[in-house]
Amino acid sequence: MLLVNVMNKKIFFVLVLVSIVFSLVVFKIYKSKKESDYTYYLVQVGAFKSYDNLSTLSKKYENYIVREEDGLFKLFIGVTKSKEVYDKIIRMYSLTSSNYKKILRLNNRDFDRYITKLDELIKIASNQNETDTLVKEGLKELNKVLDNNKKK
Predict the structure, then answer these.
(1) Distance in angstroms (rounded) separating the CA atoms of residues 26 and 38
(2) Which residue from 48, 47, 138, 147 is spatially nearest to 89, judged by alpha carbons?
(3) Torsions phi, psi of 106, nearest 5?
(4) 148 phi and psi angles, rounded to 5 deg
(5) Helix crossing, 83-93 with 109-124: angle to 10°?
(6) SS3 at position 151
(7) pLDDT tens-digit readout, 91-137
(8) Which of 4, 38, 44, 88 qualifies as a cystine partner to 100, CB 3.0-4.6 A?
């Protein structure tokens, strides 16, 4: 009888241990899904090996950011989550037909909320000045987030 009690305690202990491990795995999967990356579309209008080459094109734009990626200086003129806003930025700002839609994924809930609000405002912006201000703010915030991510 004593042997059965000891065996039951061992089985119970193993079952508790397996349950804890299983719960941790499920929680980790849930957390990773909950904090998944958000998708953004960046309007890229150029990529250059030297900053000097880029500066000629950048003079044509009022609102832009430059990021160095993969050994190239890339010029971005907009950031959005919305296809409608992306198309509006292309219509309003693109001076060439050679635009590139860069897909960017970030895990930053605050930035996501900010860009979502900007997108809604850009959609209803009634003039070029309003849109310019909103696009500029989005780019400025994107630059901050990317700089912070780079430091981590």
Answers:
(1) 22
(2) 138
(3) -130, 150
(4) -65, -40
(5) 60
(6) helix
(7) 888 766 678 999 999 999 999 999 999 999 999 999 989 999 999 99
(8) 44
Structure tokens at 61: 């734009």
Q: What is the pTM of this model?
A: 0.72
Measured CA to CA, the distance from residue 102 to residue 38 in angstroms comes to: 14
Residue with tokens 């890229």: 44
DSSP state of 68: E
* pLDDT tens, residue by residue, 2-26: 555 656 667 666 666 666 767 777 6
Contact between residue 114 and residue 141 where contact means Cβ atoms under 8 Å apart? yes
CA dist., res. 82 & res. 123, Å (int): 9
Distance CA 147, CA 141 (A): 10
Tell me if residue 142 falls in helix, strand or coil: helix
Q: CA 65, CA 86: separation in Å to the nearest integer?
A: 16
Whole-angstrom distance between the N-terminal and C-terminal Cα of the chain? 59
Distance CA 139, CA 68 (A): 15
Tell the residue number behind the tokens 């981590």, with chain if given.
Answer: 152
